[in-house]
């Protein structure tokens, strides 16, 4: 067997938590083969970029990173994988032909990407292979044993999307929906718990559609209950969920789970019904607001966070004003605001009424302003509360920092001789708000 211990790999994971899981898959496969790990581009023999393509800005960030890698370390083996080449194979071929990438793969198989790296080292064979997603393809069911550099363990239980929102390229990049078998969800969660992760984050491209392709009427709530039942796991958190796919029965069952974190990232996209319809979203603002009310009744002090797009094709000033007012009325804990960008091959690309970048940026700033006020109000309401905080790796010598169950960032002063609190949970009383986080102290 070849010895790869002299080779170090630098990993870059762009975009969502699903990509984080896929990057970790590649990392663990190569580590098992003997490869080392480095955080330095200049010291790396191989750089692997797991790309995102959700917006034009994400594509630009990927290109810039590839140029930086080659500029910093021209002789390193450069790998481009993930959603960018899967969604835009032509552009990926240009990058490959220019020599900016030595290996290009899609996001269908992390094993194939790892094998391509080994082939290049063994024989010098370059690889360009982006396999088209197809109906009935299997879930890339690799088990991540541990996220060594993270407090939380990420558990990818679903991939792909069949919703085809008019602005979104992800169904083309990620393929049709597919799910990890329920028994594997539980066994993988147990493995992560045994590796010391007290919190598990369930991730997927369209998480709420988990189980739709499995036998036996399996739903997301079944996966949540399975992971909550694992000994050693203290908290279970959900990544982004779709509002139209959460039923009253789901909420009732979730509310019975003491380990489930009361933080729900409900994707909104727009607070205007006309725009939601043009986007091919499957709910109205009234239905969204009703769901938020039900979640807040079931989970007191829960955090509702969201994504909001501005400047969608055909969005008028009145549409934008309606969206602002709706977002203001909900009182989100946090909002991710982004301007619409045209994605090649989507239905929205062919729509009329595309808006100038100047107007998009102005609307984004206005929406971000509403979000800032909402965030400040949410944080101020946390003062005086007693919360359980999972502490993470310290990034400075003066503070410990971690997150409450509702995903509020908490900092406490670090005493001179105090050891790391990483992966430990303590009760904390919140004393004040500072910038985008709260300050508190541990309750002995």
Please characterize this protein's 3D structure.
By secondary structure, the protein is an alpha/beta fold. The chain has 3 domains: 122 residues, 3-Layer(aba) Sandwich (Rossmann fold), CATH 3.40.50; 230 residues, tm_1862 like domain (pyruvate-formate lyase- activating enzyme, Alpha-Beta Horseshoe); 57 residues, OB fold (Dihydrolipoamide Acetyltransferase, E2P). 35% of the residues lie in helices and 21% in strands. The protein is built from 13 helices and 19 strands. A 6-stranded parallel β-sheet has the order 2-1-3-4-5-6, sandwiched between helices. It has a 5-stranded mixed β-barrel with strand order 15-16-17-19-18. The longest helix is centred in the C-terminal third of the chain and has 26 residues. The relative contact order is 0.08.
The CATH superfamily name of the largest domain is: tm_1862 like domain
- Helix coverage percent: 25-40%
Count of β-strands: 19
Arrangement of strands in the largest sheet? 2-1-3-4-5-6
Q: Sheet bearing the most strands, described? A: 6 strands, parallel
Distance between the termini: 54 Å
